[in-house]
Design brief:
By secondary structure, the chain is α+β, with helices and mostly antiparallel strands. It has two helices and four strands; from the N terminus they run βαββαβ.
């Protein structure tokens, strides 16, 4: 069994309130869940208007499949015009860890 995680550090566009921030972050989280069947949530920077941290995890029996899902998730977030992807932290964990 292998577990892969991604942590996205995002800079949001013209967001002036936490309510506006939610309207940007929630659709991203929902699309990741729906398209890729991953566990995902806003995991940090909840009190900042223009920053967001989104954490994502996926479990697989195959590292090739795991890397493919993580790559596709990263490309999807990077392609969103309403956010700027500042950094991505990727971790892979196997049975030997």
């Amino acid at each position: 069994m292998y577990v892969g995680t991604l942590s996205f550090d995002l800079l949001l566009g013209d967001v002036r309130s936490l309510k506006e921030k939610r309207s940007v972050v929630r659709p991203i989280v929902a699309e990741l869940q729906r398209k890729f069947a991953v566990s995902v949530a806003e995991t940090g920077d909840q009190d900042l208007h223009r920053r967001a941290e989104i954490g994502l995890a996926v479990v697989s029996g195959d590292t090739v499949h795991l890397r493919d899902v993580l790559d596709r998730c990263e490309r999807m977030v990077a392609s969103r015009p309403e956010v700027e992807l500042l950094s991505v932290r990727r971790r892979l964990h196997g049975d030997d860890d």
